[in-house]
What does this fold into?
Amino acid sequence: MAHPKEVHLDDNIQLGDEGAKLGKKLLGAGAVALGLGIALGGGPFGAQFQASYLVAFMYVLALGLGSLWFVAIQHLTNARWSVVVRRVGELHAANMPILAGLALLVLLPMLTGQSALYDWLDHGKVEASHILHHKAGYLNLGFFLGRCAFYFGFWALLSTHFLKQSTAQDASGDATISSSLQRISAPGMILFALTLTFCVIDLVMSLDPEFFSTIFGVYYFAGCVSSAYSLLALSLMWLQGHGRLVNSVNREHFHDVGKMMFAFVVFWAYIAFSQFMLIWYADVPEETHWFHARFDGDWKVVSGVLLVCHFVLPFFGLLSRHVKRNRKTLAFWAVWLLVIEYVDLYWLVMPEVSEHGHVPLSVVDVLTWVGAACLFLGASALRAKGRNLVPTRDPRLADSLAFENL
It folds into this structure.
């Protein structure tokens, strides 16, 4: 068994009881906010709650999936710079079992025949539509539930394995664990791409079952990663503000996190434009009607806001090296990207369940968003108790501590 040279960290790398207290407060706040959302949204089967909750759920799912991708890509590429920040990503990614539980609120109305969102569950509409009739082999409740079980089961197993093995290495110092996780990451990344793509097709694109786009999953993935890096930056800043990782994580690491935030702002814009341009140019009615709905009435304003606030402003805002190396400016853009990701998901979901041209803003939207986010963050904080916030015996830790941007 290979043992790496142990690196002494002159730092506070345990969240301890503070994490447990924070986690309980966040979980309590999340439960209250979600409960109010259910009450004001007409109950768990109310149309308003179902729509608002789907947006909120896809938001926290994006945080979990983006974090899982971050962990997997670090192992796959044998990355050294990220070792000191990877454990925080692992803690967020390991929320996948929690997210599987939260998914039940999306699936429950479907199971009870009270879904207000998915037309393909209505047998009458399926029989009346030639397109839906031919898609029935894929869009049917039994197959849908089976796919969801596979998605969340795979994500839960992969994320839990990453965290379990990484923390086991803290105790054993076995350097071969890093090699094992790298090997697992290769097929894991392929299956991750497939499950993410089909999941967002099932949960979001099938809201309009006659619409289809071959890069819909990639569009969602871009927002997942942008949001995950933003959350990572803010989590590290919060930890440093509470006396943790003060010496281990420095501006060089924040600079690289900022570079990835910037990269996925550009990637999101590239995918968004590609999807729009190809569909609009082809002028196929089954595709173009989807964009017509988002350029109608008040939604035209939201579309413009996305263009400016999801690409133009953060592109120039994050372009400078100095912005990415300054915690205050990086924190500003991290919060910005996390907020605009919610707007993006709202833009994906709500035009399908609201009156044409009308943006159905509601307090239920805010309550479900806050509730789901608090539950996600609270679970991460509780999971941090008893664990090091840095993989202390990872063989690449010394390189990560000495990392410098050129």
Remarks:
- Residues 16-401 form one domain.
